[in-house]
Amino acid sequence: MxxxxxxxxxxxxxxxxxxxxxxxxxxxxxxxxNVTKRIRQLEEYLGVRLFRRQGRTLNLSAEGRTLHNYSLxxxxxxxxxxxxxxTGKAQGTFRLGALESTAGTRLAPILSRYHAEFPGxxxxxxxxxxxxxxxxxxxFDIEAAFVSExxxxxxxxxxxxxxxxxxxxxxxxxxxxxKARDLGRSTIIAFAHGCSYRKRLEEWLGSExxxxxxxxxxxxxxxxxxxxxxxxxxxxxxxSVLTTLNAAEKVKQHTLPPHVSANRTHLVWRGEPSLALxxxxxxxxxxxxxxxxxxxx
Length: 297
Prior knowledge:
Elements: H1 6-18, H2 21-28, H3 32-46, E1 51-54, E2 57-60, H4 62-87, E3 92-98, H5 100-105, H6 107-117, E4 121-127, H7 130-138, E5 144-148, E6 157-170, E7 187-190, H8 196-207, E8 215-217, H9 221-229, E9 233-238, H10 239-244, E10 252-254, H11 258-261, E11 262-269, H12 275-285, E12 295-296
Parallel strand pairs: 3-4, 3-5, 7-8, 7-9
Antiparallel strand pairs: 1-2, 5-11, 6-9, 6-10, 6-11, 6-12
Helix pairs in contact: 1-2, 1-3, 1-4, 2-3
């Protein structure tokens, strides 16, 4: 059975990244007609149009975007296979995602040790909400990500790695909050939709028919905590974040019900892990508070 030609995939990737056939040909040290011919052959083999031509401009089609996502992974895996067979060591770029809280409180010592054990791997770390990170893993934009419960995806493999205690925070002048309805119609302060902590908080509020007056969205815990301390509203955060940011004295902490406060962070990935990802999984197995047991969700 004929399979896709990796050289053609590399030419396609060059056209996408260089923004056109002429620049791709210059990068590949060949004539533009050869590049055009290989793209046409690839389109014939796949039975789809990879580009939509508008005058002199090439725009990726929906099928082209799909192939581009796969091309990044195909070519990386090919390079890794050659390198692993020759040296047995991981190398190259490892794109990893993480929640803002995980990046700020958990990953520094882990990534430092990872770099020491795998000096040939360059880790590119991106942050986002659980929803955004899972979307990027599914599209192979990043190889793996640290995300929080709750989340669902039948196509991902996951492994629980950290336990987090979530707490409700308000201004120091706020009375003790024992139930969701004690918050009244105060303003909820949170990350954008897709944040699993926000989802957990909203489910708790909804269980007691509490509807916040409004929601203010922030992109960092520093901004959220400052806004809460000023008395604007309330938020839910991992207790470890308050410790790391030395913010425990700036706000009032309230204990949440166990089903809300007890949370786990998972490492998720799609498909067969690369050598670089296998190295991270092995390293996480040695972390005292992390215990990995891969499973499907």
